[in-house]
Amino acid sequence: MALALRAARLTHSTCTNYGYYRTFQGRRWPQHNCRILFSTKTGSEQMQKSNYATQQQQATKPAGKPPQIKRNVAAEITSVGKVIYETGWDANKPKDLQKKDNISPPTSTSSATTTTATSSPQPDEKKDEQQKDKAGDCQKTKREQMRDNVQDYIFTRYFNYVKNYDKVLEKNFPKAMQLYRVFFDGVKDFFGDMKRFLKISRIANDSPQGIRALNRQELELYMQMPRDMMKVAPALIGCSLPMVGYAFFPLVFWYPRTFLTSHFWTAQQRSEFQSYYMKRRLQCNKPVFRCLQSKLKSMAGHHKHADFQCILGQIGSGFHPTPEALIDVKDIFAEGPYSLLGMSRKHVKCLLKLHGLPNSLFKRHRLHEHAFLVHYMDQAITREGGVHNLSVDALRYSCFLRGLNPTNLSNELMIEWLRKWVMVSTSIQAEHITLFLHLPILLGYNHPNNWQMIYGKSKA
Questions:
Q1: Structural domain spans, the chain
Q2: What DSSP character marks residue 355?
Q3: How far is it, in rounded angstroms, from Cα 312 to Cα 293?
């Protein structure tokens, strides 16, 4: 308050006009600062007059009680704060800068009044109640925390038990879990191949090249998947039926070679079943060779009769003809008893067994379709860089599909044999399709691996 009065008197004595006003330090104050100081002066004078008026009124009253001076604390606080705000005093600012700017800190009386006005002591009873409430809240939070910890422990143990329940079953029932995993993985692989087959079929139907637009792997799946779908359909339908599935499921796994495909077989079962099917096919080599020999006399008038007779003599003596010799006699298979329509029924049945095809209706059509699919595979192998670019599994499957036993056979021997096959296959046309069907006899009849599988000993 004293600071405001002093500043107002000083400005009143030095102000002369509405321009700039000079202070005792020689500085000029703008007009709006002067107006602010005038307003503070008038406000303080009015406050003094009001205080004096109240004192005079109290003095005129009867002297029953001693006179009391009532101060308008709120007005004083606001006036002091207004002066501090307008002069720009800052407690964090250094004192040297405040002296240069003629800014003085607020008086201690005003700060004391503000602290006394704002601070109000709390009763002891309220403090005790607050402490009790805090203690109760702490106890509640501890109980809730303990309960949450117990719940978390129970649920984590339960979820871990459920997650690792397959390990518990595998420990207690190892065979049952093995069958379950084989069946589950087999179904997943089977449906994955079925989706690929549908996609490949769509590509083959939409492409102008047809089946020739497919690569080797797609052609293999396109040829094998329809047979697998027909074979595994009864097992999947029977296992899905209510009540019947409980009895049908063990029966399916008791005879996996009959009811299931290679998707559901283990590695050991694949090897065993592949050897079984290969042996059944190789046992038809001799009947097919006898059919070729029996029809040789009827082709006596053909210009390639002598050459083909020499080839059959080589096979009977334990040797194999060269690919060039087979390509040279390909015309003998285009007509007569060696053509697809001229072969006898016995000859057709033996060829079906030789290639592992089902003995059902439309036998000649099945042979024709199988021959062209394998022929397109050979062309795809040539497009993809040759036989030497195939993987080990692809080499084994290619030999198995074409009538050569790949068991205990080195990669070099498989590549050499497949090169001869591909050389003959890519050199024939559609009318020579029966030559392609007889290639397992003409190139693999006397192979040591085939001979050992049929008779249990290698042929010297």
A1: 2-54+73-117, 136-172, 174-265, 280-455
A2: T
A3: 7
